[in-house]
């Protein structure tokens, strides 16, 4: 019998998709399901963006295009991403990819050798841990601690985890799944660690503009950071384009060159006509972005109020992303659950409420005792949020 590659033993996945499968199977049997599990958006892509995509197909933009992206999109991305972060980028810094996810893999391919260590947030987007290990590196988690307003990075722990073998930090401000956002001091402290230890940084900015108040800041704008940071940018969340698969890396030129060659090896190019939709998204009217944020904010307020009305459950109101990460330890204890997975599957089969748990976002760390679930409100309307969380209560 032929064998598969050994490295597959180290490949993880985004297990949130298995929760989606269980929810779909339950729904197919005729049951009501309240989908709080996936960070997908049930608001359609704006008509001007869809029209631009259709027009590009009709105009024949269906062949190959340059590996790092069409010049018009690279230029629009350099302008938009640079101006919102106070940094000057040129199109040569931009490599267009099929969403934000491939930036994670290609960043690691570019900077990490097998056996080297990469720090990553845990709980965090599960693909970090999976790809570091798959590519032969060692995934070194850094953790968050609860505060009165949400969560903060444990700076002492991250500092103590750096060794001569550490090559990079993955940093996800406006964080999935816990919606944590760094203070300026925390961001500065992470930047100083990267500079002091000469580390690369992947700044995952997937939710940079999914925020309800104020403006986001990028670690890249801190002096000494632009030359060591790769930004992960995506159209998925800001423009409700998750299925169109469009994003990019913004990187120092030498790294951008490498990322571009990796892109050519893997994909030749990102779908040509989708890139024209990206140009329209960035250069066209922006009112649909605010409209979507208004909808999400109403959902957030409804969901937070209901979660906080459940005895023993509490969540701080996040200013960004579309996730709530309530502590359910007390509720589980009261109801006699020891495994959060059992709590989640009973919630689905008894109330129809489907959600991910802490276990879907990286391996549980030693000494970690609290139990959490993640409720995504990007794919569910306000009346269903009310019904679903009412049933959960
Ligand atoms: N980074 C974070 C933190 C995410 O939550 C996601 C998607 O949920 C991604 C990256 C990847 O997004 P996409 O590949 O759809 O652009």
From TrEMBL:
Gene3D superfamilies named in the record: Aspartate Aminotransferase, domain 1, Type I PLP-dependent aspartate aminotransferase-like (Major domain)
Species of the source: Arthrobacter globiformis (strain ATCC 8010 / DSM 20124 / JCM 1332 / NBRC 12137 / NCIMB 8907 / NRRL B-2979 / 168)
Name by which UniProt lists this protein: Putative aminotransferase
Matching PANTHER family: ASPARTATE AMINOTRANSFERASE
Gene Ontology BP annotations: amino acid metabolic process
Key words, A-Z: Aminotransferase, Pyridoxal phosphate, Transferase
Cited Pfam families: Aminotran_1_2
All copies of domain Aminotransferase class I/classII large, residue ranges: 43-339
Cofactor: pyridoxal 5'-phosphate
Domain of life: Bacteria
CDD domains tied to this protein: AAT_like (cd00609)
